Recover the amino acids of this structure.
């Protein structure tokens, strides 16, 4: 028996990221425009890095509060008060080592071996893989796609529920589709969860990246205090902090100790100086976020305009997040197409095959970058489309 054969089957079955496979193929190409990853092109702003640097220089390098320093949890409460018009005590917030860590902790708390968790697909692939590694069974329910865009049929979710279902994972605004649930859809999902005794893991990381009026609709707009909803989130997107790996969970105060215990046995807490940067992001970053959302809106419109003019790209203009999820006439294998685009257009895109059922024919383009670079990338893609 080889060494690898002695590992857990769940670990062996963990898939290579379909996004990373393309990144590794093309990352060293000279002049390549990388639009494959879910991040912008700006470094973390100085008002955040300065706060972290000051704390680091000041000796805030010791073990710290595992659930997060009080200052950060209080800053989270202020953030929700401003953006969601809701008052929550700091006891409802747990600081995590990234949004991915928040999702893993939610799974640790809710689903064990053989339990089922339903998610909407196409989806960011990490949830599916994390659930499977934990021993749970991820169950995709595909969003509907038509000429009217992406939509969620809640009856399809209900039909997927079995006695083993423990939770629903709902990401809105959606990565990769940009689908954004309205309050009617959220209410129907919440009613289903209440009726079946299910938890909802609400991933609302892109709630401020919404191109309607103000932030996107949220379960917080309709949920009651005792509803079974865990909110998972991250500092990555809003404040250009992808490399910091800091996130949070908003949960019922009665669950605080449980999640603190789970943190103890996973990463044992986030570095205190990094949390100081996160405090600055929340308290001083509203203007920065607003600028980024407006920048992304202009980028979305630019890319959609150029690709739309080809007559070969098919897409729905995204309502939220910062991705264009599109198909190209004549292309059925998006994985092969992503590698070909690296070779022939020198642009990096993520293949839709990485996002599960319903995404196979699509390509994902992250448009959260400066306009001149996006214009060049879109023109390269348009030229490539004319050859297929």
């Amino acid at each position: 028996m080889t060494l690898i054969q002695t590992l857990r089957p769940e670990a062996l079955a963990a898939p290579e990221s379909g996004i990373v496979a393309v990144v590794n193929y093309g990352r060293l190409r000279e002049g390549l425009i990388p639009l494959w990853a879910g991040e912008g092109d700006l470094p973390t702003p100085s008002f955040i890095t300065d706060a972290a640097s000051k704390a680091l220089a000041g000796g805030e390098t010791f073990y710290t509060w595992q659930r997060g320093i009080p200052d950060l949890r209080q800053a989270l409460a202020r953030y929700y008060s401003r953006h969601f018009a809701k008052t929550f005590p700091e006891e409802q917030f747990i600081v995590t080592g990234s949004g991915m860590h928040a999702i893993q902790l939610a799974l640790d708390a809710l689903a064990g071996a053989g339990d089922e968790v339903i998610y909407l697909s196409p989806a960011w692939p990490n949830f599916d893989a994390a659930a499977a590694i934990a021993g749970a069974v991820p169950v995709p329910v595909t969003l509907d796609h038509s000429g009217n865009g992406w939509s969620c049929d809640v009856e399809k979710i209900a039909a997927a529920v079995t006695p083993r279902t423990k939770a629903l994972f709902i990401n809105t605004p959606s990565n990769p589709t940009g689908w954004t649930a309205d309050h009617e859809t959220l209410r129907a999902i919440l009613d289903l969860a209440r009726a079946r005794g299910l938890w909802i893991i609400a991933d609302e990381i892109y709630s401020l990246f919404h191109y309607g009026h103000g932030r996107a609709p949220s379960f917080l707009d309709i949920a009651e205090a005792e509803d079974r909803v865990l909110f998972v989130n991250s500092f990555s997107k809003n404040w250009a902090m992808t490399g910091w790996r800091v996130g949070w969970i908003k949960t019922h105060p009665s669950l605080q100790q449980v999640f603190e215990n789970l943190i103890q046995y996973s990463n044992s807490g986030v570095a205190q100086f990094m949390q100081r940067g996160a405090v600055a992001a929340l308290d001083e970053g509203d203007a920065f976020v607003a600028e980024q959302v407006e920048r992304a809106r202009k980028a979305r419109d630019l890319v959609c305009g150029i690709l739309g003019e080809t007559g070969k790209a098919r897409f729905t203009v995204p309502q939220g997040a910062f991705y264009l999820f599109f198909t190209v006439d004549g292309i059925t294998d998006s994985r092969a197409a992503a590698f070909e685009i690296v070779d022939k257009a020198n642009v990096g895109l993520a293949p839709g095959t990485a996002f599960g059922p319903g995404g196979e024919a699509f390509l994902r383009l992250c448009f959260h970058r400066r306009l001149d670079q996006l214009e060049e990338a879109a023109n390269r893609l348009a030229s490539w489309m004319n050859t297929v």
